[in-house]
Specification:
The chain contains twelve helices and 13 strands. The chain is α/β, with parallel strands linked by helices and 390 residues long.
């Protein structure tokens, strides 16, 4: 069938199998090239890596960087939907199929487990796979983003994008027509805050590390990393100080708990750069901020996507005698985004931008290109008029 993008706002309900494959292939080529100059025999490198949340965005890029830059064996965990009738599979399903195929062709071990990463059953299946095929893993990446979670006690929790304490009004971008609008976020209830922390906080990350340690599936001096975001002050009420920010603070607290609990496991939080994702597209102000940031960082030759960030994480941050961190112990991959000259240029545009000049002042095309490429569309070299097997 011919697959076309069907989207409304930040939701895209179709994915293109050939385009997704091309997207993965391009990231792999970047990671391979980086691997040519990366000393694979460095004292600090990784050979057996578990990625929890491995099918899109930073999780997928982490898996690609581990495999094709560091030549690591990888196990990826994801929760994706295959095609059914005329309904395409999710982009993450196609991404994973492409990764597994290309890893096999490169002689690399890869195993993908499609299941609910929050569940005890999936943890058990993954640990059994580690023990059977790899023995132990030396790096665990936790890159899970989900709207809801069913905990092992049977209770269900939902995450929300809201402020804490008081409502907040800001500029935003209407994704249906690229109009600059005013958006207001209502404050969350205490139950909503707690639910968001349950879903997006560090509790499940810690449960994974506990289960891996109990099963003796972690190498001595293993590393584990969870991903986070801080952002500029203009988005603080929505993100850093909002419900998601409360969850990310819990992730940082969890890293400290893991470090205190296990002498032979080192846990870090990596604060990454803002990129276009389906979840970030749902946050008021963020799409507008991203489209401005894209323009500024491209002009200053500092722009990075997920794969560039993850290759830099592996080669410049982790493969060092001592992992560089900030005063709170966090790895800062958002260091280029938060450069004063970048933020000053962004704020200048932010104050000036309106519906009338948004196309001129912002990289709207770059934003939408990245959005649709998440689902396999707008990839150079792909014939979208051609019938494909979904």
């Amino acid at each position: 069938m011919i697959v076309e993008p069907k989207s409304k706002g930040f939701i895209c309900t179709t994915a293109h199998p050939t385009g997704c494959c091309k997207n993965v292939e391009e990231q792999i080529e970047y990671a391979k090239k980086a691997g040519e100059s990366f000393a694979a025999d460095k004292e600090k490198t990784w050979k057996k890596v578990l990625i929890i949340g491995a099918s899109t965005g930073y999780g997928l890029a982490s898996r690609i960087a581990a495999a094709f830059t560091c030549k690591a064996d990888t196990i990826g965990v994801m929760f994706e939907r295959p095609a059914a009738g005329k309904r395409t599979a999710t982009a993450g399903w196609y991404n994973t199929q492409a990764f597994d195929k290309m890893a096999k062709e490169a002689g690399l071990y890869s195993k993908s487990v499609n299941g609910d990463a929050f569940s005890d059953e999936t943890k058990k299946e993954v640990i059994e796979t580690i023990k059977k095929d790899l023995g132990k893993v030396d790096l665990v990446i936790y890159s899970l983003a989900a709207p809801r979670r069913t905990a092992s006690d049977g209770n269900s929790y939902t995450s929300v994008l809201k402020t804490v304490d008081e409502e907040f009004t800001t500029k935003s971008l209407n994704l249906n027509n690229n109009e600059v609008i005013t958006a207001t976020l209502e404050p969350a209830t205490q139950e909503e805050i707690e639910g968001t922390v349950k879903v997006m906080g560090g509790e499940d990350w810690e449960l994974w590390i506990d289960a891996l340690k109990e099963a003796d599936a972690l190498e001595k001096d293993a590393l584990t990393i969870a991903y986070s975001y801080i952002g500029p002050e203009l988005t603080y009420p929505i993100y850093f100080s909002g419900t998601i920010g409360q969850a990310k603070k819990h992730v940082l607290e969890t890293s400290n708990r893991i470090n205190g609990k296990y002498a032979d496991v080192k846990a870090y939080v990596s604060v990454n750069k803002a990129v276009v994702t389906q979840s970030s597209s749902a946050i008021p102000a963020v799409p507008l901020y991203l489209s401005i940031m894209y323009r500024v960082m491209k002009e200053q030759k500092l722009h990075e996507g997920c794969i560039e960030q993850m290759v830099r994480l592996f080669t410049e941050k982790l493969a060092t005698e001592e992992v560089p961190v900030d005063e709170e112990g966090r790895i800062r991959l958002d260091d280029w985004e938060m450069k004063p000259e970048v933020q000053e240029a962004i704020m200048k545009v932010w104050d000036e931008v309106s519906t009338e000049n948004v196309e001129e002042l912002c990289d709207i095309k770059g934003y939408w290109d990245d959005f649709f490429r998440m689902f396999g569309f707008r990839m150079p070299g792909v014939d979208y008029k051609k019938d494909v097997e979904i």
